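Researcher: I'd like a structural prediction for the single chain below. Treat it as a standalone chain; there are no partners to consider.
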Amino acid sequence: MQSMDEIYQKYAQTVFKFILSKTQDRDVADELTQETFYQAIRSIDRYDESCKITTWLCGIAKNVLLTYLRKHPEHDNVEELAIPTDSAEKDVMQAAERVELFKKLHDVEEPYKEVIYLRVFGGLSFREIGEIHKKSENWARVTFYRGKEKLRKEVEIDE
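Model: Treating it as a single chain, here is the predicted structure.
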């Protein structure tokens, strides 16, 4: 296993981009990235390598973000930070659609699911995704496209 310093050097930008994609605030994303790695250091003994380190770190980042949101009620949810809305009815419809989409995405097999998460929610480039997976940029593009098509077919089946 790599040292925490190596892990930080290699994955800090990934975590930062993941949080930034949720908050749309560079200062908050920077603060929460630091907190994520602090929490990772505290719980490194619980990392069992059953998932990729980026998945583990983004899971910690998600929990750090949720804690932040609870302590800052002016931002009562991530969607409010990222998506301005017009009406309560539209909010409810969008939330329901997002939940259904996340359910479908949850069922997409690996590596498609992780590539979609890294690209869409982490804001990573295909080059960065390829580096994380020790594959080429083109592999990341093709995998993202194929995963997106699988997800699209699942959504179409239910409509």
